[in-house]
Write a structure and sequence with these properties.
21% strand; alpha/beta; 684 residues; single chain; 7-stranded mixed β-sheet; 29% helix
């Protein structure tokens, strides 16, 4: 099917892209012909050792390693086995005086800049405090914090010691946070007395007390005072992480620009770095942080990533794929609970300024993030499809109402980006603003596929597989397919794949999570289609596949059709096999204020699905729901809701602490099929 691109790279775009510079560097290093992105990608997966060795050399990460990839077995690949490094070393090398490291903004409109010298000075001070508290290599430091600069500093200080970081946002209850952070038996807790959201201050003192009580091995709790409250028995952040703290200052030797292949050219000016601030060299796969699975079907799995794998993968993704460099301001709306927080921190690896934000994306108005992007002169902005849909329904026109002249790219992830939303970005934000729709996961803290500055953008599609990702689309038998729906698989290792799962000594849970269906091949659990252009369409989770009359369908296609209607605010579809052999496919909708589900609206919804997707996708029932439940990182709970409707025990089907609105679960658990296609089933 012919689809017109919504964005095309110009000759200047291609010439100035950091990716193009890297391709020249790699071609000169290997003697390969790499004339375009497709050739570069194919080389990167055909010879991963040569590719990642070139990435290492391009970013001047240290002496050339003797071995890049000692074993390609999955799981168990061995990357850079002889290397010792520290993630924070790369951040230190980017220090400068001409631009801030962090810009922080809040709902009240305040905007503060933190210099590289202050960020690194506070990092050094807090690292010294952690040492004094007995924290050393392998110990755990955890955060219960909003998206503020102190969270970044606490992470950098922890990582600099070779200790392991983990965090939850303060929208999590104490129970939900303990389900995650409690697994690690941390030595130190860093927390804030509260956060701001939706025009209100949210006090977290009671949750902090419960969290401390549930972490018996804590040596100390460090408190960031956001709301002015104090907690007895805690250390005050301002005292344990002062800026510079009177230290003697030393000027490190300048380094070549990170986007300079040869390292030649004028050196860049660097800012003072605290004298005596030394990082702890650790093995390439030494744990950097622990992230978590959603936890909807049990205790969240702790996903461990290594210093080296994250460093080299995130440098590739930030600089080469996203084209972020030292002149950029990088703002992705996120939370410390979500991997995009970790990815945004990686902007510091390129010397970019990152933006933190403590607040709601839609306060005081639906276009609040666009206003913040304008104020901070953001060049690369990251959002979710849900937020974009809210802007569309609110009638927002960001290019009209805000000065977005600095903005050159909008990243989108979290779920599939509908065609209509992609085209809205073109029309309401700017024709020359590149839409970078990406898909990856907490599992790898990276994208399997997404945009690149040298490849066109087609609406509703992800432009290409990411460099170094051996992406494929397989059918049930494990055969590659093109132009049809199949499983997203990765057939060769990536450096940022998990080192392990926490408390999984023999690796059983790790293997079961990704390698159970196709041994030795990573199955991610997404339905995709690889087009004749090499672009990728994401259809939704394969474990929540709709399978009506033997035809497999993705839920994302239905959401794109239904959620574009002005009467519908959100939708959830599931397919439930019935004991009598039947199959029930209801569509749950939440409606705009004042809207009722009339027969006419039912016909409108069904027509939208039939026209935009296919007749097979039209649901058996359309049901008004009191709300759509999500994980705390915004994913719709398709599989748990399906199990509840099939009669599953609510106490075992889903962990209520992992759900944003757990009261909704009781409503869904009371539903049963009506047996009347086209009818509306009521909760009992």
């Amino acid at each position: 099917m012919s689809v017109e691109p919504q964005w095309m790279p110009t000759e200047r775009d291609i010439a100035e892209a950091k990716l193009t510079d890297f391709a020249r560097f790699a071609a000169g290093r290997t003697g390969s012909s790499l004339p375009d992105y497709d050739a570069l990608w194919r080389w990167s997966i055909a010879d991963p050792a040569a590719f990642w060795g070139a990435v290492w050399a391009y970013f001047d990460l240290g002496p050339e390693p003797g071995t890049v990839l000692a074993s390609t077995e999955m799981p168990g690949a061995q990357w850079f086995p002889d290397v010792r490094l520290n993630y924070v070393d790369r951040v230190l090398r980017q220090a400068r005086t001409d631009r801030p490291a962090i810009v922080h903004t809040s709902e009240d409109g305040s905007l503060t800049e933190m210099s590289w010298a202050e960020m690194l000075g506070r990092t050094a001070s807090f690292a010294r405090t952690l040492r004094e508290l007995g924290v050393s290599v392998g110990d755990r430091v955890v955060g219960y914090l909003p998206d503020i600069p102190e969270t970044v500093i606490a992470f950098l200080a922890t990582a600099s010691l070779g200790a392991i970081w983990s965090a939850c946002g303060q929208d999590y209850t104490a129970k939900a946070a303990l389900d995650r952070l409690g697994q690690l038996e941390p030595a130190v807790l860093v927390t804030a007395d509260g956060y701001h959201h939706g025009g209100k201050a949210h006090d977290r003192l009671a949750d902090i007390a419960a969290l401390r009580a549930g972490l018996p091995r804590l040596a100390a709790t460090v408190l960031v005072r956001r709301l002015g409250a104090g907690i007895p028995g805690t250390l005050d952040w301002s005292a344990v992480a002062p800026a510079a703290a009177g230290d003697r200052i030393a000027d490190p030797a300048p380094h070549p620009r990170p986007d300079s292949a040869s390292g030649a050219g004028d050196p860049i000016e660097t800012s003072p770095v605290p004298a005596g601030f030394r990082t702890e060299p650790v093995p390439f796969d030494h744990p950097l942080w622990v992230l978590y699975s959603s936890g909807t079907t049990g205790k969240p799995k702790g996903i461990v990533h290594g210093h080296g794998g994250i460093l080299i993968e995130n440098l590739k993704a930030v600089v080469l794929q996203s084209d972020i460099g030292r002149d950029d301001v990088f703002f992705w709306f996120t939370s410390p609970s979500w991997m995009m927080w970790n990815f945004r921190v990686a902007g510091l690896l390129s010397g970019a300024t990152i933006v933190t934000y403590d607040g709601s994306p839609a306060h005081p108005a639906p276009d609040a993030l666009w206003a913040l992007a304008a104020r901070t002169r953001t060049t690369v902005l990251g959002l979710s499809p849900g937020y974009l849909l809210g802007c569309i329904k609110a009638g927002a026109v960001p290019r009209r109402d805000h000065d977005l002249s600095a903005l050159r790219s909008v990243g989108v992830t979290g779920s599939a980006l509908p065609v209509s939303s992609a085209l809205w970005l073109r029309d309401a934000v700017g024709e020359r603003v590149r839409v970078n729709s990406v898909s990856g996961g907490t599992d790898v803290v990276a994208a399997f596929m997404g945009g690149t500055p040298t490849v066109p953008v087609w609406p509703g599609e992800l432009s290409a597989p990411s460099l170094g990702v051996a992406l494929d689309c397989w059918d049930e038998a494990g055969a590659p397919v093109r132009g049809e729906v199949g499983e997203l698989v990765v057939t060769a290792p990536m450096p940022s794949m998990p080192v392990s799962f926490w408390h999984d000594p023999d690796g059983t849970r790790y293997r079961d999570a990704y390698f159970d269906k196709y041994p030795g091949v990573w199955r991610h659990g997404d339905w995709i289609t690889i087009t004749e252009r090499g672009s990728v369409v994401v259809h939704g989770r394969s474990d929540s596949t709709l399978n009506r009359h033997g035809i497999r369908m993705g839920s994302a296609d239905i959401y794109q059709a239904v959620e574009g209607l002005p009467e519908v605010t959100e939708a959830l579809v599931i397919g439930a096999e019935q004991p009598d052999g039947g199959y029930w496919m209801p569509l749950f909708v939440t409606l705009a204020p004042g809207v009722e589900l009339t027969d006419e609206l039912r016909r409108t919804i069904a027509t939208a699905i039939r026209t935009d997707v296919s007749p097979r996708h039209v649901p058996d029932d359309i049901i008004v729901a009191p709300g759509i439940p999500h994980t705390r990182t915004g994913k719709k709970l398709e599989v748990p809701i399906k199990k509840l409707i099939q009669g599953g025990d609510p106490s075992t089907v889903v962990a209520r602490t992992a759900v944003d609105n757990p009261e909704l679960l009781d409503w869904y658990a009371a539903l049963r099929p009506s047996g009347d296609p086209g009818g509306v089933t009521e909760a009992r």
